[in-house]
What does this fold into?
Amino acid sequence: MKRIFIFALAFLLLTVNAAALDAREEAELDAADVPAGIFAETISAADAESLTVSAPCAILIEKETGEVLYEKNADERNFPASVTKVMTILLAVEAVEAGEVSLDDTVTVSATAAGMGGSQVFLEEGEQMSLQEMLKCVVVSSANDAAVAVAEFLSGSEETFVQRMNERAAELGMENTFFCNCTGLSDPEEHKTTARDIAIMSRELIRHDWIKEYTTIWMDTIRGGAFGLSNTNKLIYYYDGATGLKTGFTQAAGYCLAATAMRDGVEYIAAVMHCQTSQDRFESAKTLLSYGFANYTLISATPDEALAPIPVRLGKTAHIQPELESEGSVLVSRRSAASVTKTVELMEELTAPVKEGDEIGELILRDGGSVLGRVPIIASGESERLTVGDLLLRALSAAFFGS
It folds into this structure.
């Protein structure tokens, strides 16, 4: 009995100590102020000030991080012309990936679709073509008739499809965009967007890599080779690494372009609007893309060494394996890439209860004294707190069996 009393007293002391440790560790974690996101700091755009871009409205972003490297009147609302079709294509791609439709499905052309003017592939009412062929016509030749046919196939009518376009724009955070049609052929006063919003929806589209099988086509045919398609985006032909994406022109909109390109695993999106000539839009986009490739690169936001398990005090699980909340990359200037350091800051010991997803540290990427990014490190599992009975059994087991 004396031995049991001693262990019971030890248990009470241990419980009091654990409560104090809980409070101390909670305060320490609050003091650490671990950010919720990976890219808390943005890259300075000071070097971009020297760029000469003739486009009245322009922006350059990197695909993976979404970092903005250059902007000029990026939130000015303008008519987008056929760049509108980026959203049309995106909704078609998402419908395919969701299993709602198949690329092999047959699309039947309505009188409304067949009656569209502007860029077209001269579809006839009642003509049938696979969704894959229709999508190719929209992407490569900016065909208005095919775009309406796709919209009607997916939503029943262009009007219903346009409602979904605006819903998706809101979901993506395109705060200055409103669509009135799926083509951009006409210029209703409300049908406007911005270079920033174009970049946002373009970034979302190229996350679906398979669409690049279409956006990188230079020339192709439909109707069994009877009708030729030629890409309206000339960068596909002459710019190294070009992956897309969409041109646009009307008298009101001027010349617009969403251009994407990838080299060495890094992909950039340049959006330009309201250019005076076609050459201006291609040269402006090319200047922006080349600036990105020449000056920036991606650094993997992962530790250089594997993270070791952390012991858990008073836990039913003795150790918890830490893991990154998310894996990604940080965009850095090429000249500083070699000097980037990664520091792991982890709690040395945890106290139960520990929940899966609890923040227990962070990975910090630095360039000298500048913090480039922070990645929270979280618990990959949970550890419940030992009960009074659990501790008493452990004490008795140690007393009588030595383990």
